Amino acid sequence: MDRGADGKFERRTSSHFELFQDVDIDRSGGFHGSRRFEQEVLDELEEAYDSLGKLLSLRPERRISVVIYDREIFDAHFRGLFRFQAAGFYNGQIRIRGTTRLTPRLSRVLHHELLHAALDAAAPNLIVPGWVNEGGAEWFEARAVGKRGLSPQERSALVDFAAAGRLLSVKDLSVPAFGRLGPRAAGIAYLQSYAYIELLARRYGERKLPLFYAELIRSKRLDRALSRVYRLDVAGLETALHEEFR
Ligand SMILES: [Zn+2]
Predict the structure, then answer these.
(1) Measured in angstroms, how far is the CA atom of residue 137 from the centroid of ligand 1?
(2) Residue 146 burial (10 A CB sphere; 0-12, 13-18, 19+)
(3) Of the candidates 35, 56, 81, which has an alpha carbon nearest to the alpha carbon of residue 177?
(4) Which of the residues 10, 45, 90, 213 has an alpha carbon 20 to 30 A from that of 66?
């Protein structure tokens, strides 16, 4: 385990996770103490694990490491990786820009990063196209809190991007990560990736999503996964998405 700047990471484990946290909580006991926070985060992660198994049939076997950093330490360590403010990322471990409470926002970030960790565990050498990886993570974090489909705001943002000719091509969205994009482009990239997975879930049913990810993991080929599960090719999917926001 790498040590934080002050080297005071607390370690705690559950069935599928090991948690290290270094947020600025003075007390260990009590309602606002660090032990309670750690337990809440682990409980949330285990719930997320169950949801991921139910929704996408992904159930990583090896324990996943999750590191929650104090915000300043996170920013000092990882600022160079992103051109926008990242709430967390996955690079072999789930790394989270921390809060001292389990907020709804933190819960969503934990869900999001868990999808990345699970895909990596299932296919460590597979470079997953960004829209499949980030779109899946965005879809999972939204779906886990009961959100189905694009919100009116998301839909109108995509209509506006389309009208301005700013929708990204599926080729642009196939880079493995969006960290190098500027804040505006990153916003479009995440939203549009979500829209791709949402389109697949809505038109073909949520139950096909786990088949799609399983076929991608098995064959290591996006074109094969799309054609086997959806009878689609990438260009056809791109056309379908762009037509939705015309
Ligand atoms: Zn992500």
Answers:
(1) 6
(2) exposed
(3) 81
(4) 213
Q: How many whole angstroms from 119 Cα to the centroid of ligand 1?
A: 11
- Identify the CATH number of the domain in which residue 68 sits: 1.10.390.10
Domain extent at residue 184: 130-244
Taking the centre of ligand 1 as the mean of its atom positions, its distance from the CA of residue 219, in whole angstroms, is 23
CA distance 35 to 177: 34
- Tell how far the Cα of 81 is from the centroid of ligand 1, in angstroms: 13
Prediction pTM value: 0.94
87 Cα to the center of ligand 1, angstroms: 9
Domain endpoint, select from 122, 151, 178: 122
- Per-residue pLDDT of the chain (246 residues), as tens digits, is 444 446 578 899 999 999 999 887 778 888 888 889 999 999 999 999 999 999 999 999 999 999 999 999 999 999 888 888 889 999 999 999 988 889 999 999 999 999 999 999 999 999 999 999 999 999 999 999 999 999 999 999 999 999 999 999 999 999 999 988 888 899 999 999 999 999 999 999 999 999 999 999 999 999 999 999 999 999 999 999 999 998
How many Å lie between the centroid of ligand 1 and the Cα of residue 141? 10
4 alpha carbon – ligand 1 mean position (Å): 22
**How many Å lie between the centroid of ligand 1 and the Cα of residue 113?**
6
